[in-house]
Amino acid sequence: MESEKQAIEFYLDNRSGVSPYLQLVQQVKQALRLGFLKKGDQLPTMRMVVSRLAINPNTVFKAYRELEHDGLIESRPGQGTFVIRTLADASLASHDELRRSLLDWLREAEAAGLDEESVRALIASTLQQFQKREQIA
Amino acid sequence: MIQALETTQLGKRYGKDWALRDCSLQLPIGRVAGLVGPNGAGKTTLLHLAVGLLEPSAGRVLVFGEAPHSVLPRVGFVAQDRPLYRAFRVMDMLMLGQKLNPTWDMELAKERLAHLNIPLNRPTGKLSGGQQAQVALVMALAKRPELLILDEPIANLDPLARYEFQQTLMDAVAQDGLTVLFSSHLIADLDRVCDYLIILSASQVQLAGDIEPLLSTHKRLIGPRDREASLARTHTILQARSSERQSNLLVRTHGAVLDPSWEVQEASLEDIILAYLALPAGDSFSARYQQIQEVAR
Amino acid sequence: MIWVTWRQHRLEALIAGILLTIVVVFLLVTGASMISMYQSSGLASCSPDQAVCGHLEGTFINHFNVSVNFITVMLSTLPLLVGMFIGAPLVARELEQRTHRLVWTQSISRARWLGTKLLLLSGVTLVAFVGLTFLTMWWSSPWNAVITPWATYDVRGIVLPAYALFALALGIAAGILARRSVAAIGITIVLFLLVRVAITFWLRPYFLPPLTFISSFEQPGAPHRSDWTIKVETIDRNGQPLSDSQVSQICPQLIGNGSAAAFTAFQTCEKNHGFQSRSTYQPADRFWIFQAIESIIFLLLSLALLVPTTWLATRKIT
Asked: What is the pTM of this model?
């Protein structure tokens, strides 16, 4: 079980303030975005993740269920859980456009007198709020 | 519905002192529950009542709907300090388990110990603390219990041993759908491992419930000091740290926070627990909650 | 549970076995030696009125006195050792080391745990001491014939297993109450000795009303040698006992003077005052009745100790 290389190695950050299940979801999405996880790759079994991270099985279950709900993964009985869609293509196209609007925003922030730390703080807290809003929805 | 553990106004008294009083909680099957509280709060007393080592002085305790001593084969228990017979070799401990438990799974026990590289013919007294903890855990797991109760199982273990213990435990939960109740001093690992929380303080239950609703209803609010009183009319303030002008509150919300002058942040599980533990003795969440209800009317 | 009991106590069993073997060897060696001398010296065929018997007896007793005393002490200690090292730690050690939290939460009830241990350990103790008592009866037979059967009362017959079972019960009860092995061992030693001494010296002489034998210088005599003489007193004309100092005050002839003339004067003085000697004794044929009575007392004491403490252990202790 330990010797096989897994398509993705989960990790948990105690200090991030983000709940464990959300961290798992984010790590899968990040890997998909950056192309480390491709269509057809098999995710580690729930038991493997639990055993590696010493994490509550319900947490893994919830994370996988949400990813399944988002249409990113699919569990096939008797075989395992597999990636059925990536996020790479969808986002790559809009990267340039988004980068441009982000630069505009940064210019606005600088004009308003925010230094780098304030910019980061604002982005971080707004991002958190945004994610939370998604969660409730 | 049958709960894994159900207590009704459970109490235990030694002479005039109540080690535990008025403890009512229901632990659903399948949960991994953390029991937290300071030393002397009654954690060990509660756990001992649940496994039949103690008789209640008041109230009642049921495990899977029955008295604890009649469901011993279905409950695995590891006491504080993880007692083992020091002169017994590990294999002897497994034999003891087999002789005294009708549901013993010897193959499982040997397999788990082999996986952890714990030699079967070493006397348990010569094992390291971490290895002893693992042996004690395997003893409890090899019974194939439906409920596993652990009293401070990872206290005095080095961080690696602690982590390995939790790995073994979570793996068993994943494999068998075990219900787990363990008491702990260490709050840091709880949100990773538990989905249910019981807070015991001053021999009383301050809180008992699923962690997820706990995290969604408890918030950290930062805002103007003079808005605190009006906030307190709708929501329960558990902890207030205030400067002259600003208040930093840990709040149990009842509905959304409508006042825009408050910045609403997530509260970590650790902060929530600490706030409950810091409630003055005799004060309990339920008492405060009732106060809010009174005022709201 | 049988396996568990064996595995937990196997070191004790080994040590007990070794000790027992040592005692058995002593018994076999001295027993064979005593029997051999008893027969070859002609003591066996000697009748008490023959003058030469006294001489043979004296030699025999001198030869074996020390070893008989030594073995008697050893045999008297054995039951106490059972109580100290098998009984006292039984429950106390589990509580001390907190292993009761492990073993009482396996699937077996406390009653069954304790009951099995009690049965097994008392069974083994009983078998060992019954075997031992057969051996001590064989070993002591020449000594009993030469001195009196009562001399080895404490180390043979039914009482020996009874003392062992009592010590075991006492040790277990002490362990349950004290919850600490060392304290339990101390309590066991003190109480065992107290009870044995109290029963031996205060109760045993009076299990059945003792008989009396009156004698004087005109009518000399004494209870039979194989009877148990409890005490010998000088009594006056009215049957009231007199202490030695009282006798010396009334008939001072022997003070500071050991001559034959002084002795005759003393005898006359006693006769004039009507002094007699009264022996209080238990006859030899009561030996086994007394053993039975004493054994029953010890067994009842054992029950009185075990019943409440085992109830306590199975219902109350944490």
From this structure: 0.82
